[in-house]
Amino acid sequence: MTLTTWLFKNSKACPFLLLEIIAILFCYQSSLAYVDVQTSTSFGFYRNYKKLNQFPVFHSWSLNGFYENGVESSVEFYLNNNFSENQWQLIPTQMQINLPLQPETNYSDSKLKVGRQLFSEGFDFALLDGLLVPYYLDMSSGIMPVIGYLRSTDFEQKEDNSSPLLGMIYWTSLKGIRFRGGYHARDTDFENRYIHTSFQYQWDALPWKPLLYLKQEFIATNMNFNQSYSELIFSPSNTVETRFSYTNLNPRPTNHSEKHTFIYQIFSLSPMETVATEWTWKKSEQATFNLSLEQGFYQSNKGNENSSRQDFSMDYSIKSGQSISPCFIHMKSYGGEIHDLCLRYSIENTINSKYIAELNSAYINKINQIEGWVQHVRGSYETTLSNRAKVLLALEVERNQYFIFDMRTMAYVTNYL
Amino acid sequence: MSPTIFNSLFYLFTRGTLTLFLFSSFLLAQNQGKDPESKSKALREPIKTLFDHKKHKGPFNKSSTSCTDCHTFSVKSPSSDPLAANVPSGYLQPSKKVCHECHLAKISLARVNQCSLCHSQPEKLIPENHKLAWKKRHGHVAQMEPESCHACHKENQNSCNNCHTQKNTLKPIVHRANFRMTHAIEARGNPARCTTCHTSSQFCSRCHESGGSR
After folding, report:
1. Which among A313, A330, A244 is positioned nearest to B189, based on CA atoms?
2. What is the value of ipTM here, to two decimals?
3. Do the chains contact at B181 and A38, CB–CB below 8 Å?
4. What domains appear along chain A, each with residue ranges and CATH number?
5. Contacts of A174 (CB under 8 A, 6+ apart)
6. For the residues B32-51, what does the mean pLDDT come to?
7. Parallel, antiparallel, or unpaired: how do β-strands A240-249 and A224-237 relate?
8. How far is A286 from chain B (nearest CA, A)?
């Protein structure tokens, strides 16, 4: 067993060790630190279609500390439960300590970040249990070594799907062209290695200020193309924006061993390609319109499949504090067709109270012979009890092919200690 | 890229660009002479009332903040004559931005809305680029220019986690109503969209293999 492998296997306990370190820092240095604590509790009741009563509870807790010399700590976890299914889970979503690396310079983002933290690089979006060291070489360029275990942000699974990761990221900016690229070795014995590159440039001098964003990923061993995302944005004025995009995406589970059981593979036997355009027009402070069109292509075990989606929405402020947002969505795929009408109405009387009502009515025609109208209504009232507490009461009602009448009530209480 | 996709892409691009040109020419003509944005960042009270030296004494001591951190004395007398008049005291006032040196960097007060402590209309503080299709675009900007996000969103204070890792099943904030009934059609239409967030192979099976009781 190599030293690196040993370190990875034993670093799984790292977040819990860090919790202790942070607790110690908190206890011994609280007089020297700025600390804020936020707790939030949600609970509700509903009956599922098997007519079983459900009592879900959700509690989140976060503590952020700023200590002398610029050291920062952050802990966040949540407790989730469904009493009737006995699903208690304690889930740490963030536990990290940040140590400043260049306090004498303006590069305040140069840090040594240890613990569980969000990781978003290239085509990865996951949690990292490990070490990230963003280090600025100057104001616009830097390097970032990364080592640790990558795991899905989806915590409800029973099995561990974490995957070891070792990598290096570099970013720079030259004459307005931003570049960010990296090399990642991952999975057991780092057998899968990828190179990702991203470029961004905006032609400010040209009409409509086109902005081009390109992101690609290659398999490092043979430099074969793996996946890409391309986007071209035009901004004819401060109130209009148009986006054209092309994607060619491969399934990317957190752990490569899951690739063949992955949801994506159930449908698609090839990389998924999409072409899309989206237009947004902010007519005034009161009204914004949005239209998006998307076509998708891939191969499944049924042959060549394609899908389409058209989405039109609008946000309109009727008067101060009141807004209405209607939308129409049409979607068609092998799975069926939807014509979806939605309407969202919100009233924000003061900074201390807010009402939201959302209505959705859709005509669906699914491949499993379900056809007809489905309705869903959601409503909520949120009020601030004090500078440090707020409460939200919510109700939702569904009527569809499974439920003649399905209702849920929820309450959310958030407290800032 | 297959010919079908290329044709679709070409069609969307040419048709879209042409329509956009006509559409935007119309809009630009409509918007001539209008001020599209109110830049109001009004404070709830005058800054002299909001900021109290006595109340800040404790926090300043804790964070080793000295007088010259705010009062930089960067304005010098134009005269080198030692007997010349002093710099008017107004010039020694710290910049309003200096409040953010702590409030956006070092500390986060335990409040429902920090910005509303001082600003009467916090919604006016939202940057321009956040107002058009930002929900779809913010991920790329956050990857390419993380330091621009950190100027306002404290890195370790759940700015990203609040939406991306906290899976409160009671409070759906991503999917629209009726999604439980329609998600199969969307998943079959664009499975890549689902797997941006749901990166575990067990995600579907938890409901579908347990008979949908959840």
Report:
1. A330
2. 0.80
3. no
4. 1-100 (no CATH), 298-417 (2.40.160.40)
5. none
6. 63
7. antiparallel
8. 11
Are B191 and A98 within 8 A, CB to CB?
no
Work out the minimum CA distance from B82 to partner chain A, whole angstroms.
34
Cβ under 8 Å to B: A residues 251-280 = 251-254, 258, 261-264, 266-268, 272-280
Instruction: Flag whether residue B124 sits within 8 Å of chain A, measured between CB atoms.
Output: no
Closest CA to A233 of A207, A255, A211: A211
State the nearest Cα–Cα gap between A2 and chain B, in angstroms: 28
In chain A, which residues have their Cβ closer than 8 Å to the Cβ of B31?
A: 237, 239
Nearest CA in chain B to A118: B161
- Tell whether B203 lies on the interface with A, counting CB pairs under 8 A: yes
The B residues from 180 to 199 touching A (CB cutoff 8 Å) are 180-182, 184-192, 194-199
Cα torsion for A243, A248, A252, A256, to the nearest 10°?
Answer: -160
Which pair of tokens denotes residue A230? Answer: 């391309």
pLDDT at A253: 65
- Give B124-149 pLDDT, tens digit per residue: 788 888 878 888 888 888 999 888 88
Q: How many CB pairs under 8 A join A and B?
A: 348
User: What residues in B contact A94, CB-CB < 8 Å?
Assistant: 156, 158, 161, 165
Q: Read off the pLDDT band of B213 (50, 70, 90).
A: very low
Is the CB of B123 inside 8 Å of chain A's CB atoms? no
pLDDT of B34 reads: 45
Q: Which residue has the higher pLDDT, B75 or A186?
A: A186
3-state DSSP assignment of residue B109: coil
Which residues is A307 bridged to in the sheet?
Answer: A296
Q: With cut-offs at 50, 70 and 90, classify the pLDDT of residue A289.
A: very high
Q: Which residues of A190-216 are buried (b: 16+ CB within 10 A; e: fewer)?
A: bebbbbbbbbbbbeeeeebeebebebb
Chain A environment of B5 (Cβ under 8 Å) = 273, 275, 295, 297
